[in-house]
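Quick log. Single chain, no ligands specified.
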Amino acid sequence: MSETSEQDARNLAAQHRELQQNAESVNQQLGMVQMSIEDCTRAILTLEELKSASGAINTMIPLGAGALIHANIADVDKIVVSVGAGISVEKTPTEAIETLTQRKEELGKVVERLNGTLTQIGQRLASIESAVGNRPPQ
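-> predicted structure:
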C-alpha cells in the first residue's frame, strides 16, 4: 500500500471513529429529551386527573431514594411550573397543562432534529464504509 493510500485509510478510520462518537452523543441526547417528553406526559396526565378530582386528594409524594410521604392536596387551583432559568410561576391547572403541552411539542421538534442528525451521521458512516470497501488492495 502506498504512503498516500495508508494516510487516506488512517484519515477515513479517524473520521469513522469520530462519527461513531458523535452518534453515541446524539443518542444520549435523544434519550434525555425522550425522558423529558415522558415527564411532561406524566405531569399532564396527573394535572388532568387532579383537575377532575373534588375535595381533598390523598396521595403519596416521592421524597427521593425510594422514600414516599403521605399527603393531602387540599387545593389544586394553583400549580407552580418551571419556565426556565430557575424561574417558576403559578398557573391554573389549565394554563399549566398548556405550558407543558407546548414544552412537549418543542421537545418533539428537538427529537426530530436529533433523528435527522443521526440519519446524516449514518449516511456519512455508510459512505466511509463504502469507500473503504471499494478500495482495491494494494
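The chain has a mean pLDDT of 90.
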